[in-house]
Amino acid sequence: MSITHDWVIACQTALVDRLTNKISLIHVLEQFQVPKFPAVLPPFQIVALWHNRTEMAASARLRIEVEELAGDSSSVLSEEEVVFAGRVSHRSICIVHAMTVLRPGAYRIVARLQPSDSAAWLEGNSHPFVLTAAGPAPSAAEA
Prior knowledge:
The chain is mainly β. The chain is built from no helices and eleven strands.
């Protein structure tokens, strides 16, 4: 297959320099702490990089999902049809405004590729993260 997935990462903010096209990833997310479950996660961004490895044009559907590792739940966060004109790269940026999670545990963000409408979704790279409940806030007497 000519289209490959290089990496996917979740961060608080992703900045793209308009002059150089370089990207800065600010506060890479590996763990979320929430007061209780179910919880709504604060806004964050997911960035994925894809490449066409041949000189020929190619197209594919690209998808970003979040999966709970201990359960069967999976949610599609973004999906797009991309046409690559020769040896080019494509950066997917998914802004997650709010995501509801039901329980603590291990999760992962997965990049998937579908080379044609009738083909199966192929898994690319993933980015793991953990959701935990924050401990009780210290009382004034403990501070």
